[in-house]
Amino acid sequence: MPPSHLAPSAPPPSRRYLCLKEREEIALLLARGVGLREIARRLGRAASTISREVRRNAATRSGGFDYRATTAQWHAERAARRPKPAKLAMNSALRQYVQDRLSGQISRPDGSVVTGPDVVWKGRRLGPRQPRRWAMAWSPEQISSRLRIDFPGDETMRISHEAIYQALYIQGRGVLRRELTACLRTGRALRVPRARTAGRGKSFVTPEIMISERPAEAEDRAVPGHWEGDLIIGLGRSAIGTLVERQTRFTMLLHLPRLPGHGEGPRIKNGPPLAGHGAEAVRDAIQFSIARLPKHLRRSLSWDQGAEMARHAELTVAADLPVYFCDPHSPWQRGTNENTNGLLRQYFPKGTDLSLHSPDDLEAVAAALNGRPRKTLAWRTPAEAPDAVFANAEAGHVATTG
């Protein structure tokens, strides 16, 4: 049915739309050979509006390109009819492509499917959100942009990221199942700033190893081999280590299992770090993972001033990897790693026990993350990094402390 502004009893259309009188004026001026910019000036419209009107609504049936007011008005009214069929509803191949990359399952190296934990949102802190589940979880923007790479000559395999969001959220355009919103990167309903607490100074952090002393080549990402690292913390002080290469965004995950004796009695103040992410455990995990890379991929490591890096000097000697520390309360100095940790929270939500995940599980998640196209890499994936960068490196390897 036609929209209300085109109904016979409707009031005159607003100045947002061209009316029949203006289209008649355009047709007369074009017949006199007046240019588009001059027509726009006389009608008080933008030149792009007139150019678009002539291009879209001209009469082309006879093989020419003549602009007639009545034909242009018919074209405009036909285009304004609603509702329009959704592109995903009309193109089954496109719909399947979107669904596979939004909700496709991730798998271990042996091909078995990793279902991930059964997480139920308890409504704490950040408002309502969908239960999280592990999936390929490409964002709508990644899906939309990757189509041009995977189908360079097929114009039917094109869709905007906004159309994907509408298919998920807008009632009446629900071509995709509403449950697929659980595969979107975040279900956060609002942003809540985190309170910043005053941290105490760390004795192992000295001025010569602050991030301001890091080589300048690391800042512009022109040279590979500069890494950023951090821990993501879960229930019961469980943790997983993350390492991200600044140039390629390639991610490695560190398995940090709990040590024997954890949970067998009350926690001892200043006792041994049995949760599995003490300074020695983190040192060994990083060394096991990153020391196996070639020398040109071990140029530096940036970390925050957490106590888990108290043994950084031993790591520097053993792995030949200089370590630099960020300023307090300055997460933007490790922006690549902070962004990656946000992506990983889809697979490892807050309030869950991260020690339950095996090294194979972490390897599957790292492979899924390294297989996502990135806007900053021109929609290539970190796994598609040039061979010269990761030559002889074990891509996606997960370190353990065993």
Q: How many strands in all?
A: 7
Rg, nearest Å: 28 Å
- Largest sheet, if any? 5 strands, mixed
Domain unit count: 3
The average pLDDT score comes to 82
Task: Look at the structure and give the CATH class of the largest domain.
Answer: Alpha Beta
Q: Remind me, CATH topology of the largest domain?
A: Nucleotidyltransferase, domain 5
How would the global form be characterised?
A: elongated
Measure the end-to-end span: 68 Å
Oligomer: single chain
Level-2 CATH architecture of the largest domain: 2-Layer Sandwich
CATH homologous superfamily identity of the largest domain: Ribonuclease H-like superfamily/Ribonuclease H
In the sheet with the most strands, the strands line up as 5-4-3-6-7
Topology pattern, helix = H, strand = E:
HHHHHHEEHHEEEHEHEHH
Work out the helix count: 12
| Uncertain residue ranges | 123-127, 188-193, 195-199, 392-396
